[in-house]
Amino acid sequence: METEPRPPVRDRLREDVARLLGVPPRSIGDDDDLTEHGLDSIRMMSLANDWRANEAGVSFADLVETPTITAWVTALAEDDGGAGPALRGSG
């Protein structure tokens, strides 16, 4: 049985954020301040919980510190020794 390849981490993060905000993923830039798109602390907490449940070692504090896709990709990669997070089935 073939499995679908996981999307790149950056794309997966953008898709998860876009889904929460109800906007197209392409409307979110890598270095956009996600709070300016309307991502509030409750939604960031939800993302952190979802990603941790899928074996990604990211905390709410990581997300709030610098709310950009680029910063979050970096935080996830650092936690995983540079290999990138699992994010299996998140969302």
UniProtKB/TrEMBL annotation:
Carrier domain span: 4-80
PROSITE patterns documented for this protein: CARRIER (PS50075)
Protein's name according to its UniProt entry: Phosphopantetheine-binding protein
Native source organism of the sequence: Sphaerisporangium dianthi
